[in-house]
Amino acid sequence: MRAKILIVDDESAIRQMVCLALAQANYNCLEAADAVEAQASIVADKPDLILLDWMLPKVSGIELAARLRREKLTRDIPIIMLTARTEEEDKVRGLDTGADDYITKPFSTRELLSRIKALLRRTAPHAVAAPVQVRGLTLDPTTHRVSADGRSLELGPTEFRLLHFFMTHPERVHSRERLLDGVWGDNVYVEVRTVDVHIRRLRRLLTPTGHDRLIQTVRGAGYRFSARD
Fold first, then answer.
1. Which of 39, 124, 159, 172 has its CA 20 to 30 A from that of 183?
2. How many C-alpha atoms does 203 have within 13 Å on its Cβ side?
3. What are the UniProt keywords, alphabetically (predicted)?
């Protein structure tokens, strides 16, 4: 079955260009010009990935991304933010809000397709179906559910995969480059700084139950997931 990609952009020329590239790459393309149309398409068509423009009329892409991450129906859908903003703090803000990746306008369709392929690959269901548990923190790859001390946690697809990697590789120090390889795969476009942003988001989600302490920063080396005091 061909993956369905929703492009949300108020510029029809960009939507047409993206849809043509997606069709040639054997994807199904869905279109929306604003947040209202996007939400209607998501409910009706359940896309596998969303390409979301930052600068949308009325409701911005940033606001829509945050809203999608809060809703149970949409929190697991991968999001690539399309933005004309080039400042690093803007890119970090996009990732912090809920996007899994970003691409700066103008972009080549070849790069866009590479990003889509990599993101779909890394957010696909895990081959290992056995649940993992550490100190009351439970992750089930089959149902894509995470709970902490019996409390359900809502993680985005990248945070889920990052936590799964940590929980299945505990007590080791992982450099940012190692985490990029293990979680993001061979997507050469992802910057090392992206790792820090997603770890910060993951820690924030684990903070209410105190499980954020399991993710330790090892100065000058990277990160470690440890249940030791």
1. 39
2. 16
3. Activator, Cytoplasm, DNA-binding, Phosphate transport, Phosphoprotein, Transcription, Transcription regulation, Transport, Two-component regulatory system
| Model confidence, pTM | 0.64
Reported for 45-49, long-range contacts at CB under 8 A and 24+ positions apart, including other chains, are: 45/4, 45/6, 46/4, 47/4, 47/5, 47/6, 47/77, 48/3, 48/4, 48/5, 48/77, 48/78, 48/120, 49/3, 49/4, 49/5, 49/6, 49/77, 49/78, 49/79, 49/80, 49/116, 49/119, 49/120
Same domain, 118 and 158: no
Question: Is the CB of residue 80 less than 8 Å from the CB of residue 100?
Answer: yes
Domain identity same for 10 and 112: yes
Q: In 44-149, at which residue ranges do the beta strands (DSSP E only) sit?
A: 49-53, 79-83, 101-104, 132-134, 137-140, 145-148
How confident is the model over 124-156, as pLDDT tens digits?
654 456 789 999 999 998 888 899 998 999 888
Buried b (16+ CB within 10 A) or exposed e, 44-83: eeebbbbbbbbebeeebbbebbebbbeeeebbebbbbbbb
* Domain range enclosing 211: 132-225
In this structure, the answer to whether residues 195 and 115 fall within a common structural domain is no
Q: Output the domain CATH number for residue 156.
A: 1.10.10.10
Q: Are residues 14 and 62 in the same domain?
A: yes
The answer to whether residues 118 and 94 belong to one domain is yes
Question: Largest Cα–Cα distance in the chain?
Answer: 56
Q: Are 158 and 96 in contact (CB under 8 A)?
A: no
Phi/psi-derived region of residue 118, left when phi > 0, alpha when psi is between -120 and 50, beta in every other case: alpha
